[in-house]
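Residues pack. Consider this:
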Amino acid sequence: MKVEFLLPLCAPALIALAAWGAEGQTSPQASPASLQADFQAAMAAEDAGNLARAEAILTNLHKKHPGIFEVDESLGLLYAGQEKFSDALPLLSAAAKERPGSDVAHANLGAVLSHLSRDSKALKELARAVQLNPKSAALQQKLGELLLEAHQPERAAQAFTAALELAPGDRDLTLAQARALCDAGHIDRARAAVLSLNGAADSAAAQALLGEIEEKAGNFKQALDARLRASYLDPTEENVWQASAEFLHHWTFEAAVRAFDAAVAKYPQSVRLRLGLGAAYFGNAQYAQAAPVFAGLLKAEPGNAAYADLLGIACTALLQDEKPGCDVLIAYALAHPGDAKAATNAAISLLGGEATDEQKQLARTLLEKAAKADPRLAEAQFRIGLLKQTSADWAGSIPPLEAAIKAKPDYAQAHYRLALAYWRTGRKQEGQAEMELQKKLSHEQADELDKRLRQITIFHVQLPE
């Protein structure tokens, strides 16, 4: 949220120009009356929507008579209104110096600085404006907005509270105050602020914020109820996403599938909703449904490594011969030989079920690419060793399995397979030691699918809003 501009100068500026001329500051070529007439013509042109004429007149006045606050402020605001913030900055900076006691000048300068992402300087100007005019609810509100954007919710809450004292009952200000209080960790006060609004139950904005507040308070049911209410009152993509994601965050996967399925039907182009649907399917153990969702995202963005990773997680969970969408992962892995993880996941997908000789050969090629791209990727080394063992190459399986354990010492399956290789090659004592390690580690390791589910869920939760 960027700070907006205050109203440009109009009638008071004409009076100021006349006073300026009366002080004898006009150039020899111009009289106060002509300056006032030109300025008035510029304002009339701007009011009529003829911005080019207004700009031409004001630019000419600025060149001929530098240092006039009204001209600099008006021309700066004209540029700002056209989003020419870099052009507006020097003019509004000059105006603030020419009239240091003007709260409007400092506020407008702060707004331009905010749009140019110079937040610390923008805050300084807005704070100065408030200092000059602390009784302005509009200035207090703008300061609060900028503080909130600058991740200073405590100070923002103070500014919004001050604004509310000047404009009690203002709906937008109350919600802004509640937002700041929530971000600052004052959950009870934030909740009370939202509930103090008349008709809060029928306000989508109030319910959406209440859902966030209850989520931070750890009240899952109340958070879900509020977010569902917000999505019912105003079914925007944002509100629908928040409500659907609430199920996913708390691993209520069957309900999450239903919610995201309906949401994607309503907003089929929403990437985060499609990601949520894929995650919900995966959490509900519907891997054959999850993989095509992630495959569709990867098809739309063929170079997206994150989507390839999510598709890989789904494809490696599929044990059946039919793996819908996993061909997209294989194509990605072949096209991106440097992505060792994708190549490994594609190989695992190929080897799952009853793999043909052709699939085994492709899997071997992919694993070799993965090991070359990242020799310390434990999973790739383990799968190379496992593939060698399926071909009865027990001695050949030892080096990659040892490499897998070196990269990941707690890899229980690798210890088990290495134990078998040692036994088959006559190294009984070493085999026994590896088997003992495997038994110990297998009790300590979490379920792999559970870990992958957390990975998918965390990725979804961290999506930008």
Summary: The radius of gyration is 32 Å. DSSP finds 26 helices and no strands in the chain. Residues 7-29 have pLDDT under 50 and may be disordered.
